[in-house]
């Protein structure tokens, strides 16, 4: 008779203790944790079991609690350790000792232990955070000792046990001082930038204080160093300040950043720097790009007031530049008739009162701003587009006014003006960092494209929406190529002529149609079982090879990795943390965690995933929801993923 499998609530583990042989025990999930610890202590003749606890021997070495014990798997190596309360008390005493070496060792250990939520709660409960804050405020710690102090402080605050609002003004001044100093130790600078970013994002009152204490000039100076990690933390703090600045002062902050040459420094020291832009830096550049374009939202959502003479004068200026209206005829009625004729030639839908064309939002007044920029900065182009079309008598004229308004609305939609940044997105466009008026220049390139495509399509007014659909496809295809400059965008758009769009559409349609012909359908039905088996084998082989995933914690710039692969017998998923992204295959023995495939209950996607239901400082948009999936397994555990796109191997948010 075959042996009965062990009960699901019994886990076989090894427990270590320095200087003793490991104990191999059957960990009974039904038995109180205190009882198990007492039995382990008895095995080594240790008294006072209440002074001890169990921790993982590998990885982050977290404490085992009644809440987390269910995560222990067969074959896990645990370590008997002093309890979190005892450890917190001892470290609190040691970090206040007179011996510098003893204090340094204690702070080093504290920096590591503070990531553990169980220890953190005990340490904070003993006023440990206040002690660390006083050490920083004293200004007597330097170098490694200060770096470990700041690391521990940040790790403890990240657990969300204590409100950031409790931070003192002198602490903020001290941290800001490290950031404002031109020469400061890299590790101290990195942690100081991270602490200030967390303050800004988590507390309105601290945002105001940090904004007062931190000089933008010095933050921008940190972007000119060769260390990309420092650059990333600096730009993250700039973004946090930008995000939390009241709406009525954001334009002012943008002007300050422009005066300090932020765009040019990012372009020369980061985008065109000596090293490739890493994922987290790409995310921060994307956030800055979004926040910058969101400055357009106010104008985009502002309707024109037809009775406002100043606004009407802008439309008059467009007419004057196009038709050189210096020699205006005398007589009000005659002038009005000529103006109406001119506004019709300018392509307005309401030539009698063109102000009415700007009463719909979006794009509101933003469209008029774009048109005036084109007319004043690229006057020759503007005049050519207008005169070229108003001189045609064959109904093929492209209405400039209507086109410019609709194009502005389209560009706002493509670039999601007014939307919050999405936490999972790295989609920044280098070309938007190459010009101080990147938005307006982008419009100017695209309005010329629209005019060119209109002529290529030999369009009439009835074809307006059809033309806009083609133009949208041209722009989105060109943007997907990530042109490094606006000039390169022009090159890409020139290659995406109307005939090329038709060819691409036809090619894509044919590749779909080919699969719908009767002989193909018959052949597919015949070989489908074999193909499905091949696909299954290919996917299993890929799962067995495994994949490395990027793991995001509370602070995304602390980049960590983990690896997951299927066992060769297809019965177990192995996964575990890595110090760095591996080159090639990771052996099973390095992957300390595992999930029996038989325990997997379901795979969830999109908004059903647990990690998509969590609140975030940045918006989880529709795109991220489409890329999310989770593996649910017994008893009630979950492994959460977010893929970078619909085609590549998934990246992950890590085990939660």
Notes on the protein architecture:
By secondary structure, the protein is of the alpha+beta class. The chain has helices at 33-43, 84-94, 100-113, 117-125, 128-138, 143-158, 169-180, 186-202, 204-213, 216-221, 228-244, 247-259, 262-271, 279-293, 297-300, 309-323, 332-345, 365-377, 379-390, 400-414, 438-456, 464-480, 486-495, 498-513, 518-545, 622-627, and strands at residues 10-16, 23-28, 52-56, 77-82, 547-551, 560-566, 572-578, 593-596, 600-605, 628-633, 637-642, 651-655. The strands form 3 sheets. It has a 4-stranded mixed β-sheet with strand order 2-1-4-3. The chain has a 4-stranded antiparallel β-sheet with strand order 5-6-7-8. A hairpin with a 6-residue loop joins β1 and β2. Keywords: Apoptosis, Cytoplasm, Membrane, Phagocytosis, Phosphoprotein, SH3-binding. Residues 310-479 form the ELMO domain. It comes from Cyprinus carpio carpio.
């Amino acid at each position: 008779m075959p042996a009965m499998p062990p009960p699901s609530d019994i886990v076989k583990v090894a427990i270590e203790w320095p200087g003793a042989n490991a104990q191999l025990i059957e960990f009974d999930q039904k038995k109180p944790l205190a009882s198990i610890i007492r039995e382990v202590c008895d095995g080594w003749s240790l008294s006072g079991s209440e002074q001890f606890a169990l921790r993982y021997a590998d990885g982050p070495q977290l404490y085992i609690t009644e809440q987390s014990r269910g995560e222990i798997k067969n074959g896990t190596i645990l370590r008997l350790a002093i309890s979190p309360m005892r450890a917190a008390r001892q470290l609190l005493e040691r970090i206040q000792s007179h011996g510098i070496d003893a204090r340094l060792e204690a702070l080093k250990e504290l920096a590591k232990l503070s990531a553990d939520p169980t220890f953190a709660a005990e340490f904070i409960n003993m006023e440990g955070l206040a002690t660390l804050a006083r050490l920083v405020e004293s200004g007597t710690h330097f170098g490694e000792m200060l770096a470990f102090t700041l690391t521990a402080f940040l790790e403890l605050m990240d657990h969300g046990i204590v409100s950031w609002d409790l931070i003192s003004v002198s602490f903020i001044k001290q941290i800001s001082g490290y950031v404002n100093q031109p020469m400061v130790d890299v590790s101290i600078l990195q942690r100081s930038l991270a602490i200030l970013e967390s303050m800004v994002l988590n507390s309105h009152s601290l945002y105001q204080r940090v904004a007062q204490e931190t000089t933008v000039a010095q933050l921008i100076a940190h972007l000119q160093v060769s260390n990309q990690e420092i650059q990333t933390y600096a730009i993250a703090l700039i973004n946090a300040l930008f995000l939390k600045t009241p709406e009525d002062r954001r334009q002012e902050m943008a002007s300050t950043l422009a005066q300090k040459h932020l765009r040019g420094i990012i372009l020369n020291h980061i985008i065109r720097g000596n090293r490739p832009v890493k994922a987290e830096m790409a995310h921060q550049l994307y956030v800055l790009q979004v926040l910058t374009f969101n400055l357009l939202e106010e104008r985009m959502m502002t309707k024109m007031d037809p009775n406002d003479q100043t606004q009407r004068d802008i439309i008059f200026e467009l007419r004057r530049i196009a038709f050189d209206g210096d020699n205006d005829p005398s007589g009000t009625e005659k002038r009005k008739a000529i103006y109406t004729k001119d506004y019709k030639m300018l392509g307005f839908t309401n030539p009698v009162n063109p102000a009415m064309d700007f009463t719909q939002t979006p794009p509101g007044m933003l469209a008029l701003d774009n048109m005036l920029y084109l007319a004043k900065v690229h006057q020759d182009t503007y005049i050519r587009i207008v005169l070229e079309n108003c001189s045609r008598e064959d109904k093929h004229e492209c209405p400039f006014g209507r086109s410019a308004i609709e194009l502005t609305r389209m560009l706002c939609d493509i670039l999601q003006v007014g939307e919050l940044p999405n936490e999972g997105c790295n989609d920044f466009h280098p070309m938007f960092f190459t010009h101080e008026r990147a938005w307006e220049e982008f419009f100017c390139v695209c309005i010329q494209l629209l005019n060119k495509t209109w002529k290529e399509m030999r369009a009439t007014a009835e074809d307006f929406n059809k033309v806009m659909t083609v133009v949208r496809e041209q722009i989105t295809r060109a943007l997907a190529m990530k042109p490094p400059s606006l000039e390169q965008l022009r090159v890409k758009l020139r290659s995406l002529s109307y005939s090329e769009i038709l060819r691409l559409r036809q090619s894509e349609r044919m590749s779909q149609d080919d699969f719908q012909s009767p002989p193909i359908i018959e052949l597919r039905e015949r070989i489908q079982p074999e193909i499905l088996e091949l696909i299954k084998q290919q996917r299993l082989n890929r799962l067995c090879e495994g994949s490395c995933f990027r793991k995001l914690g509370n602070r995304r710039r602390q980049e960590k990795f983990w690896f997951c692969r299927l066992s060769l017998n297809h019965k177990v998923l192995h996964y575990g943390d890595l110090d760095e992204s591996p080159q090639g295959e990771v052996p099973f023995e390095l992957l300390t965690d595992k999930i029996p495939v038989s325990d997997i209950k379901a795979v969830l996607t999109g908004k059903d995933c647990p990690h998509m239901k969590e609140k975030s400082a940045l918006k989880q948009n529709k795109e991220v929801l489409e890329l999310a999936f989770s593996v649910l397994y017994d008893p009630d555990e979950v492994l959460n993923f977010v893929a970078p796109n619909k085609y590549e191997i998934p990246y992950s948010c890590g085990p939660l």
